[in-house]
Amino acid sequence: MDIGPVEYAVIAFPGNKFKGDIAPELRRLTTEGVVRIIDLTFIKRDVDGTVEILELDALPADEAAAFADVDGEIGGLLSDEDLASICEEIPPDSSAAIIVWENSWAARLTRALREAGGVLVAREQVPASVVAEDLAAIGQ
Question: In the chain, which stretches have pLDDT less than 50?
Answer without folding.
Answer: none
